[in-house]
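User: Show me sequence and structure for the first protein, then do the same for the second.

Assistant: Starting with the first protein.
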Amino acid sequence: MYSIHRRQNTGGTGFCPNDTYMKLLDKNSLAENIEQIARYDLDNHNLFGSSYFVYQNGEIMYKKHFGYVDEAANECPDDNTVYRLASMTKPITAVAIMILVDRGIISLDDTVSKYLPGFKDVHIISNDGIDLGRVKSEVTIKHCLTHTSGLNRENSVTFTGSEKKSNDEIIRRFIEAGLAFEPFTQQAYSGYAAFQVLGAVVKSVTGQGYGEFLKKEIFDPCDMCDTTFSPTKEHLARIMTMHSKVNDISVVSETCPGCVFERIPYEQELAGAGLVSTLKDYSNFAKMLLNKGEINGRRILSEQAIREMSTPQVPKEIMPGNERWGLGVRVVVEEAYPSLSVGSFGWSGAYGSHFWIDPENNICAVFMKNSRVDGGSGNASARRFEKAVSDALI
């Protein structure tokens, strides 16, 4: 029988915000719950294959794979199956920014124009294309991390093939397209523009390629050997087939050669959506966040940086509801949120991947799939996974 332990209040949202009791997972219930939802998704043609990882108090409570990487080859996923992360790239970019903040190289309140001068003269452009004039308050690093920058007009920007490979050109076109609103007066999800700007800031201040910086500062110390913007032939041999569904039957969805996210080429190093990874790799990243910035005896971020990331940064007036944006993550702020404790934080991807950190119960959990029919933060498979874990807590 599992016992219930008193946890010490460590202070701060995201680090056991109240003096509460930590609940422990029942392994048998957890396995039963996850296997039920995995079978449901397979039986209902919601994916080709999936991977699950749950970790509590330094112990892997559950790890298993279901279905097929490629139905034609009849090959089951494993720890090393490669998945397209889509927006689960964003928390990694947030960690990259916070590494530079930790070192005093940049500040969250720095204006983007300090590093990318073109942003000094960015304008507000209405949905019908009317120029409303130059911004009153410049876009900052923090605005980009919290989806309050107004940089969410990606769909109005088009590129030729060669332009897509030039980060400078992409940034120039984002500036030209303008902002949707005055920074920090609203919040609106930025699919990739704001985080591409953050990646450009990292390149500007470090003089390194963005992928090179991530490898040195995050991937190598976290033992994330298969996480990359540019999958090799060997990676592609292990990549999950992209799923779609026609008439309630699973079908293969074609992907663009030389691209991880939609039709944006590898060379772009898309800081908001362009990484591939594995369950093994991303679980290491999640464990580092759960362990307040440290993994395998190596410190990636300070505890203060993790605390700042996992603290809601957007006022309730701008973002009502039971979750709000932290720095590159969403944070549960109301007990009304189903399944997760207040202070839990994490992210999701457009192709269905999903993870969260639950500081109150000392849990991290990762779910991997690649499907075009049920992705993003509201995807039903991810919500079922949250509930499967929650229902196993005693």
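Switching to the second protein now.
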Amino acid sequence: MRLPDEPELPLQINVVPMIDVMFALLTFFIMSTLFLTRSEGLPVNLPQAGTAQQEASAPITVTVDRSGKISLNRKPMTLDALVTQVRTLIGPNQKSLVIINADERVTHGQVVAVMDRLRQVQGVQLAIAAQKP
């Protein structure tokens, strides 16, 4: 109950907690969008090709890094194990695009050896990754 002599206090809305909540939400959304990018292979320096075209993302990516190490979907493996792993990923009577990410400093012979082994798998369609200059 209010006494008649008391002055009426003006109503106030404190916006400082609301601003803190908004900054927390903004930080959450910015940080979560940073993790939405999908990396298909290990970081390598791709060679440049003027006729390079954008391909739809493929579920199978073979990477040959600068030192010649081979990885299948970011998992390191040997050339002999590569064929059996790709066979299990593709499955019987199916076709799949396999993208080869080879560093520009890797020898041509090593890339051809990987391609030769992959061509032994039924249903493999090969593509070599490159970037536009």
